[in-house]
């Protein structure tokens, strides 16, 4: 299996508008971060996209991705779904809508905000056939597991994808670690985890919480993502223990 990190930044990206790099070195290309999203790919070439960030178009162009086989959403916050319209070109040459999956609450809110995507409008076809996660256990050769994670007043869905005897997990936008999360991610090959900043945050994992999840899960390799402007790539890379990598846009790993 292959992991491709499309975006590794927080909701405002790095730099923030106003060319605000915070503590990040602007001369380090890995500090330039678009909003979080990943693609996982099997040996057979099947691709699953997780989240449709506002930067999706540029992410797909930068990584030469012209099609995906399904879309999974973690939750409906703007930085995770507002690039949804950029799925349209991947519908043009399909005979049916893209398969899409989300938790029941996230699916309901996505349908309310982006109705045309899921039901078509004014002669335009449906772009995504959205189903709840209860209806997917295996898709395109991937075994799919999920867990709801505490994210302030709502939850964000964490995913475990397995194919070809390998596993990749995605846990973004969580503030606390639950036993269900540890169970889902236990023994995983690659775990991509939320790590907003060093200090605690009410709705996101700080560095300590992220490293704790890595330890409890026994992940063989971990990737830190959803990084804000205080998290300089080089400096953070020197701080983290062996087996933990600082994520960056365009990063590729093979499990």
Radius of gyration: 17 Å
Total strand count, please? 14
Distance between the termini: 5 Å
User: What percent of residues adopt helix (DSSP H or I)?
Assistant: 10-25%
Strand share of the residues? 25-35%
Pfam family, one: Lactamase_B_2
Organism: Croceibacterium selenioxidans
Protein name: MBL fold metallo-hydrolase
Domain Metallo-beta-lactamase: 34-226
Provide an overview of this structure:
20% of the residues lie in helices and 28% in strands. It has a seven-stranded mixed sheet. A seven-stranded mixed sheet has the order 7-8-9-10-11-12-13. Strand 7 and strand 8 form a beta hairpin. The longest helix has 11 residues. The chain is globular, with a radius of gyration of 17 Å.
List keywords for this structure.
7-stranded mixed sheet; alpha/beta; 28% strand; 255 residues; 20% helix; MBL fold metallo-hydrolase; single chain
Write the layout of secondary structure elements.
Blueprint: E1 2-7, E2 37-41, E3 47-50, H1 56-62, E4 70-72, H2 78-81, E5 98-102, H3 104-113, H4 115-119, E6 128-132, E7 138-139, E8 142-151, E9 154-163, E10 166-171, H5 179-185, E11 190-194, H6 207-217, E12 221-225, H7 233-239, E13 244-246, E14 252-254
Parallel strand pairs: 3-4, 4-5, 5-6, 10-11, 11-12, 12-13
Antiparallel strand pairs: 1-2, 1-14, 2-3, 7-8, 8-9, 9-10
How would you summarize what this structure contains?
This protein is of the alpha/beta class and 255 residues long. It contains seven helices and 14 strands.
């Amino acid at each position: 299996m292959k992991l491709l990190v499309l975006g590794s930044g927080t909701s405002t990206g790095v730099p923030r508008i106003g060319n605000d790099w915070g503590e990040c070195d602007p001369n380090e290309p890995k500090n330039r971060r678009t909003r979080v999203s990943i693609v996982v790919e099997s040996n057979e070439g099947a691709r699953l996209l997780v989240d449709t960030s506002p930067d999706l178009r540029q992410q797909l162009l930068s990584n030469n991705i012209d099609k995906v086989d399904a879309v999974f959403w973690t939750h409906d916050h703007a930085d995770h779904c507002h690039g949804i319209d950029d799925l349209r070109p991947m519908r043009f040459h399909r005979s049916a809508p893209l398969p899409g999956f989300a938790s029941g609450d996230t699916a309901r809110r996505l349908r309310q905000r982006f109705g045309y995507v899921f039901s078509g409008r004014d002669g335009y076809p449906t772009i995504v056939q959205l189903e709840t996660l209860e209806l997917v256990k295996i898709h395109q050769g991937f075994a799919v597991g999920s867990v709801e994670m505490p994210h302030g007043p709502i939850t964000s869905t964490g995913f475990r994808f397995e194919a070809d005897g390998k596993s990749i997990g995605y846990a973004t936008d969580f503030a606390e670690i639950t036993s269900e999360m540890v169970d889902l991610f236990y023994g995983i090959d690659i775990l991509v985890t939320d790590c907003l900043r060093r200090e605690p945050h009410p709705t996101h994992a700080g560095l300590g919480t992220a490293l704790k999840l890595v330890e409890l899960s026994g992940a063989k390799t971990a990737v830190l993502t959803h990084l804000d402007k205080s998290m300089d790539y080089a400096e953070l890379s020197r701080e983290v223990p062996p087996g933990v990598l600082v994520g960056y846009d365009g990063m590729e790993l093979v499990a």
